[in-house]
Structure formats: C-alpha cells, structure tokens
Backbone:
C-alpha cells in the first residue's frame, strides 16, 4: 500500500498587539514526502519551533561546536551560517519568527544571549513552554493552534513592566536597517543613535546578537533569497544582484557561499519543492 502524502503549510500573522514583535506563525505538517536535508538560513528573525509530533532533528548547528540532536522545542538566535535539518519523510510543527526587538518582552532575555546558537526552548524560557507545547498538540486544527500561541504570547506581553524593551536609539537603528534592506552604512546608523561606532557595535552585539555590519549582511541576504524564491523556475541572478545592492553576480554568489554554504542555484535546486508547496516563507 502506498502511504498517503500529507503536505500542509499555513502562514498567518499574530494578534495585532504582537505585530512588530512577532513576524508570523508558520504551521507545517508533512508525511510521505522524500527524505531531505533542509537549510535553516540566516535571517533577521529569531526562530522558535514547537513541534507537533516527532522532534526536530538538527544535523548541524550554526555553532560548529554544538552536537547534532533532536529538539521537541527549539529556540535559535541570529546567526551567519546555516543550520542543517534532517527531514526523514515527515515533520510537523509551528515556527514563530520573533524580532530581536521582541526578545526581552516575549522571551525575557536579550537576543544577544542567543546569538549563533540553538537551545531547547523549554530550558531557556521556563515551564510555560512545556504547557503551551502540550496545548498545541491537543488543539484540533491550525486556527486553534494559532489561538493558543496568541494567548500565550499576549500573556507574556502583559507581564512586561516597561523596562525590558530595547533602548529607543537601538530600536530606531534596527528599523532603519530593515527599511533599507541592509543597505545602510554603519556610520549612518551611529548618527541615528548618537552613539560612537564602537559603542553601537557593542550595543548591537548585546541586544541584537550581531554587529551592525553583520546584521546588514544578514538582512540583505534574507531579502535576496526571498526574492529569489518568488521566481525559482526563472531566476535572473544578475538582475537580482543589482536590485539588492550587490556589486555584481559574483558578489551575490560569494555572499551565498558565506551565509548559506552553497550557491543560489544549488539552494534553489535543494529547496524547490518546499518553495513550491509553501514551506518556504515568502517575503
């Protein structure tokens, strides 16, 4: 008997009070699909994954010193190299994209404490993660699961006492970096904050998890690969490089090699089915 193929992907916005702190929720469930290895690429979002059935199997972390392992829940900070995720023909869970600016409010710690690493989310965030994880597994459908997440994060938000947000100058600098697609000089960000270049680097590392220069690279790379995913069957890499501010296609290829450990064409070939099915989040 041929096993039934299940391939579900649902992406929604969080409740309005959470927007700006959380980018989106991505729910997924796959069964009977070909075994594969997925690249978890650098992005300007922290990653929180709560699985629904089998754990997430990490073959390689952004931190090369971290051992492979299985994660029922996973929390990862900003990073500049890919994670490798084994998909043995099945996977299910919900991935939350959390802004570094939301880390203190929603997670109770600055994003800098998670820079370049993956951890078990229930170890980092406390026992209520285990509770919400159980409620997600009991929920009957995607809308119910997303309501569980909204309720949980809104509860964490109401615990905020007004002192756990990032400093206003850093918030403005981060938003400027996103608004320009990473195409802003560090000197301009320093001028926005009123900080010296050195102080800005130190504050970015502590609050965001990357230096301003590294963060700009990640933001531009993330925008580029999302635009690439819009037309996976007819990519124009030279035009894409120009549109996203790279010097030329060779520059784009070098950035992919540095941040994804593969070429743009190789990434498309590996992820084409996920892109087409919606498992690759669009820009």
Residues:
């Amino acid at each position: 008997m041929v096993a039934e193929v299940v391939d579900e992907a649902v992406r929604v916005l969080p409740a309005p009070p959470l927007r700006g702190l959380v980018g989106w929720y991505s729910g997924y469930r796959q069964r009977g699909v070909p075994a594969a290895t997925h690249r978890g690429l650098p992005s300007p979002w922290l990653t929180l994954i709560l699985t629904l059935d089998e754990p997430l199997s990490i073959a390689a972390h952004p931190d090369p010193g971290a051992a492979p392992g299985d994660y029922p829940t996973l929390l990862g900070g900003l990073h500049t190299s890919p994670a490798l995720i084994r998909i043995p023909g099945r996977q299910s869970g919900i991935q939350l994209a959390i802004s570094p600016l939301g880390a203190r409010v929603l997670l109770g710690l600055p994003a800098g404490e998670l820079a370049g690493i993956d951890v078990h989310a229930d170890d980092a965030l406390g026992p209520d993660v285990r509770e919400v994880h159980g409620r997600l597994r009991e929920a009957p459908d995607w809308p119910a699961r997303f309501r569980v997440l909204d309720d949980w994060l809104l509860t964490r938000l109401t615990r905020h006492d007004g002192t756990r947000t990032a400093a206003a100058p850093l918030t403005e600098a981060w938003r400027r970096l996103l608004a320009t697609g990473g195409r802003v000089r560090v000197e301009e960000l320093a001028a926005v904050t009123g900080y010296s270049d050195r102080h800005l680097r130190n504050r970015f590392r502590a609050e965001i998890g990357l230096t301003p220069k590294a963060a700009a690279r990640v933001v531009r790379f993330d925008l580029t690969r999302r635009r690439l995913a819009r037309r996976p069957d007819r990519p124009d890499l030279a035009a894409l490089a120009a549109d996203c501010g790279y010097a030329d296609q060779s520059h784009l290829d070098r950035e992919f090699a540095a941040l994804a450990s593969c070429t743009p064409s190789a990434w498309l070939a590996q992820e084409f089915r996920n892109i087409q099915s919606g498992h690759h989040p669009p820009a």
Observations:
- The CA atoms of residues 232 and 269 lie 9 Å apart.
- The chain has a mean pLDDT of 92.
